[in-house]
Design goal:
- The protein is of the alpha/beta class and about 325 residues long.
- The chain folds into two domains: about 10-280, Rossmann fold (3-Layer(aba) Sandwich); about 285-334, no CATH class.
- The chain is built from eleven helices and seven strands.
- The chain has helices at about 20-30, 55-65, 80-90, 120-145, 170-190, 205-215, 235-250, 260-270, 280-295, 300-315, 320-334, and strands at about 10-15, 35-40, 70-75, 100, 150-155, 195-200, 260.
- A seven-stranded parallel beta sheet has the order 3-2-1-4-5-6-7, sandwiched between helices.
- Strand 5, helix 5 (about 170-190) and strand 6 form a beta-alpha-beta unit.
- Helix 7 packs across helix 8 and helix 9 (about 280-295) packs across helix 10.
Length: about 325
């Protein structure tokens, strides 16, 4: 059998305790990498109320998938702890090939449905510290290991494959900021042969989402009755396989500075989700919007929200001018 594509490669996945970060770490392990899994929740010291997942579990899943998982408790808001993390990577591995910034921690801080002039600035500041400042600190201290070798891949994990408004001011700032970080870092790294890019998953079946719907990964389809959009959901491993494919691509530098999606990269690289499906959230969502706009029945609140969300996306696409006008006309009537 051929060697796994990321054998002898070293990765750090910041924010690997659960969700997309865990799936990314697992799939880098499936591709043969050594993966340092970082975050704050370890056995006996949970950091997120109500969530049982730990870094040690993630590291064990990485090793079970074929790689080597190493759990390192790190609070990425504390710069000295981040420095210690990369000092350890340097001492133990002597290199860093892939850095994934997936730290979030903003779910409890997002005030959906609240206009910006009524938002808590304290919650907003906490969100930006957790979801943006941590990424800056982590890249600041991890990337020098790549620059020394003139090689490496930095991945910023965001939500959404456009720069359209995401429905809440601070959430929008955080998710657009990390995509912009990838672009800005790619500019500084232009002559260093280090690639920086951003990626989004689609509708993610994270542990918390499965719990919210009262299902497991084995019977997740039962939740489609509660939310039709769940039908095109994906496991956290889908975006993980996307990042593993990027890391194994010798021409990944051509993508530096870009913003990509799990479903788009699945078409390009030919991988599937771990359940054998190939979800295409982008196409699915646009079909749903078209069906809402074309039907005769009066829309409900969710329909209006979905159409407005698509308008925010399409406004940044010069090729979607006609669609933008149709959506605006529909919204004026509803």
């Amino acid at each position: 059998m051929p060697d796994p594509p990321l054998r002898d490669r070293v990765a750090v996945v910041a924010g690997a305790t659960r969700g997309a970060g865990r799936g990314i770490a697992r799939m880098l392990g499936e591709a043969g990498a050594t993966v340092y899994c970082t975050g704050r929740s370890v056995r006996g010291r949970p950091a997120t109320p109500g969530r049982p997942e730990t870094l040690e579990e993630t590291a064990e899943l990485v090793s079970a998938a074929g790689g080597r998982g190493i759990a390192v408790r790190t609070d990425h808001t504390i710069e000295s702890e981040v420095e210690q993390l990369f000092a350890r990577v340097r001492a133990e591995a002597g290199r860093l090939d892939v850095l994934v910034n997936d730290i979030w921690g903003g779910d409890a801080l997002t005030e959906w449905g609240t206009p910006f002039w009524e938002l808590s600035t304290d919650k907003g500041q906490q969100m930006l510290e957790r979801a943006v400042h941590t990424h800056i600190i982590t890249s600041r201290h991890g990337v020098p290991l790549m620059v020394e070798r003139n090689a490496g891949l930095i991945v910023e994990v965001t939500d959404g494959d456009t720069f359209g408004y995401r429905g809440n001011l601070f959430y929008d700032l955080a998710k657009n900021a990390v995509a912009r970080l990838a672009y800005a870092m790619s500019a500084d790294l232009h002559a260093r042969r280090v690639t920086a890019l951003a990626i989004t998953p689609g509708f993610l079946r994270s542990e918390a989402v499965l719990d919210h719907f009262g299902v497991t990964e084995d019977n997740w389809r039962d939740a489609i009755e509660k939310d039709a959009y769940f039908a095109e959901s994906e496991t956290p491993c889908y975006v993980g396989r996307a990042i593993a494919a990027l890391a194994a691509d010798p021409n990944v530098g051509a993508k530096s500075g870009g913003l990509f999606s799990s479903w788009g990269l699945a078409k390009e690289y030919g991988f599937t989700d771990v359940d054998g499906r190939r979800p295409d959230w982008g196409s699915f969502f646009r079909r749903k919007v078209q069906a809402i706009v074309e039907r005769d029945a009066p829309p409900d609140e969710m329909d209006v929200f979905v159409v407005r969300s698509r308008l925010y996306q399409a406004e940044f696409d010069p090729s979607a001018a006609e669609e933008v006008e149709r959506l605006r006309a529909w919204l004026r009537c509803h």
